[in-house]
């Protein structure tokens, strides 16, 4: 892969103007998503381009988090870092779920040691100040980053795009950062139902346009993050969020077909969502990504054809090498090798030893 940081602005623009992408050399992840059996078990890692990598820390010393997201050359570089280092089977575009609230007019800062902080969390009083119109146009930098990265990957592995689901975005916007119990957002669900439904529908519409734009820019699979699944019971999730998941799954496919673009597999990840996995499956998601609490066999017994993704406890990465291999093998025995994409059960932690990532990838690839 080219050294992306040496690209001049003219070269970046030339890549962005090119129509065809390099031919694919590895499509294991797409095969598994479609229910085919690849030559090796595919693996990628949530938050694979993150602070556990010294090269990412070096990049972060030079640039703020959102500057990296907003500059295609830097986002591309961050995306490629884990691919240069490990034999992973997918890249995921470097960005964040919170770029949507930014495009709606909210200010989000990434505060060291604290994570994301909204300077003015959303209230009923400020709800009408959100700028919905043309929101996806303000996210065109993500499309440019995807397009550039597809070229720079040179077909080595597929590139994933992503968004958060409406509920997770709603929680972050109302709570103003990483939630403890999402008390304020849950209060809206019960006390402000009409505003809530309006809000969720508008978010779903933006998410559809955003994901369609990502596929048209070159994303080959999409992951919808429901990182706040744990805060809702099945009844509330079914009533308010099931229609949104359906709207997103079907909306993305239908809009792509209308524009003669081939639809791509869609993954649903619900953190703390083992109680509601049947809902995204019913909505038509091709792959269900599960956290480390969820037993894959309980889903397989009900839905034999759905591809599952996950679910090593990110803290297993702190084991000694021999023990880590045992945990990986135990996980694999529960999933089986068909309809399976290996991943962690949530994002990799920032102090994860880089050798554990190498062990994880090598062990998984040695299975078949
Ligand atoms: C909830 C959520 C967010 N962002 C995301 C989620 C959903 C997944 C999940 O449940 O964890 C998704 C995300 N965030 C990031 C990616 C990039 C692609 C990847 O490598 O997976 C993806 C897919 C980069 C990031 N997003 C963030 C970092 C670290 C920030 C930094 O470098 O300062 C990275 C690499 C910051 C971020 N962004 C967010 C939080 C809570 C934090 C702070 C936590 C932390 O610091 O690890 C919001």
Automatic annotation (TrEMBL):
Record PROSITE patterns: UROD_1, UROD_2
Asked if the record carries the keyword Lyase, the reply is: yes
Tell me where in this chain the Uroporphyrinogen decarboxylase (URO-D) domain is found.
Answer: 42-51, 160-176
EC number assigned by the record: 4.1.1.37
The UniProt record lists the keyword Lyase = yes
By its UniProt entry, which CDD domains does this protein fall under?
URO-D
Q: Which reaction does it catalyse?
A: uroporphyrinogen III + 4 H(+) = coproporphyrinogen III + 4 CO2
Q: SUPFAM superfamilies from the xrefs?
A: UROD/MetE-like
Its keywords, alphabetically, are:
Decarboxylase, Lyase, Porphyrin biosynthesis
Metabolic or biological pathway, per its Swiss-Prot or TrEMBL entry? Porphyrin-containing compound metabolism; protoporphyrin-IX biosynthesis; coproporphyrinogen-III from 5-aminolevulinate: step 4/4
What family does the entry list?
Answer: Belongs to the uroporphyrinogen decarboxylase family.
The protein depicted here goes by the name Uroporphyrinogen decarboxylase
Record the organism. Answer: Nicrophorus vespilloides
Q: Which gene encodes it?
A: LOC108567072
């Amino acid at each position: 892969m080219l050294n992306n940081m040496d690209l001049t602005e003219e070269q970046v623009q030339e890549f962005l103007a090119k129509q065809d992408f390099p031919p694919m050399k590895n499509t294991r992840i797409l095969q598994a998503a479609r229910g085919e059996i690849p030559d090796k078990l595919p693996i990628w890692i949530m938050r694979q381009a993150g602070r556990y990598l010294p090269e990412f820390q070096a990049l972060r010393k030079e640039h703020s988090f959102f500057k990296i997201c907003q500059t295609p050359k830097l986002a591309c570089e961050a995306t490629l870092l884990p691919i240069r280092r490990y034999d992973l089977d997918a890249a995921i575009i470097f960005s964040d779920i919170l770029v949507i609230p930014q495009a709606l007019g909210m200010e989000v800062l990434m505060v060291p040691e604290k994570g994301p902080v909204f300077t003015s969390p959303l209230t009923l009083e400020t709800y009408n100040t959100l700028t919905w119109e043309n929101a996806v146009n303000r996210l065109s930098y993500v499309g440019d980053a995807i397009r550039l990265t597809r070229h720079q990957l040179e077909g080595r592995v597929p590139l994933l795009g992503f968004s958060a689901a409406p509920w997770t975005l709603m929680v972050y916007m109302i709570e103003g950062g990483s939630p403890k119990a999402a008390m304020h957002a849950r209060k809206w669900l019960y006390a402000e139902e009409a505003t809530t439904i309006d809000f969720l529908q508008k978010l779903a519409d933006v998410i559809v346009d955003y994901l369609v734009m990502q596929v048209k820019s070159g994303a080959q699979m999409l992951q919808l993050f429901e990182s706040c699944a744990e805060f809702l019971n099945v009844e509330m999730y079914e009533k308010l969020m099931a229609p949104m998941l359906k709207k997103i799954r079907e909306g993305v496919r239908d809009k792509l077909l209308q524009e003669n673009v081939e639809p791509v597999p869609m993954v649903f990840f619900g953190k703390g969502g083992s109680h509601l996995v049947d809902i995204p499956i019913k909505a038509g998601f091709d792959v269900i990504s599960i956290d480390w609490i969820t037993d894959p066999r309980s889903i397989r017994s009900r839905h034999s054809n759905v591809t599952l993704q996950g679910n090593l406890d990110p803290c297993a990465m702190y084991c000694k090498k021999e023990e880590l291999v045992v945990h990986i093998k135990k996980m694999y025995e529960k999933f089986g090798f068909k309809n399976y994409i290996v991943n962690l059960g949530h994002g990799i932690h920032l102090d994860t030893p880089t050798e554990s990532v190498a062990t994880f990838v090598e062990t998984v690839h040695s299975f078949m």
